[in-house]
């Protein structure tokens, strides 16, 4: 539905989600990518294990905060916001 250009543009605009959302992504990267994986399946298993280590409270905070972050993103016309 959306082209790659649009997706990249939106990903760039959503960098304001860093406080909670990207913190979890960083956790996944640090845990799952700490070592090289010989296969895609090995990487998948590592990502699932890292995902399972994220506390439910952290994910709940991300979900609960999303409407406020989205509103701030829209008001900033996709620019930087706190």
TrEMBL record:
GO terms for molecular function: nucleic acid binding. It comes from the Eukaryota. InterPro entries: RNaseH_sf. This is Transposase.
């Amino acid at each position: 539905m959306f082209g790659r250009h649009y997706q990249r543009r939106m990903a760039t605009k959503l960098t304001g989600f860093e406080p909670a959302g990207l913190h979890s992504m960083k956790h996944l990267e640090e845990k799952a990518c700490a070592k090289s994986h010989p296969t895609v399946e090995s990487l998948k298993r590592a990502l699932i294990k890292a995902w399972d280590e994220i506390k439910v409270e952290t994910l709940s905070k991300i979900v609960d905060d999303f409407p406020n972050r989205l509103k701030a993103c829209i008001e900033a016309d996709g620019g930087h916001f706190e």
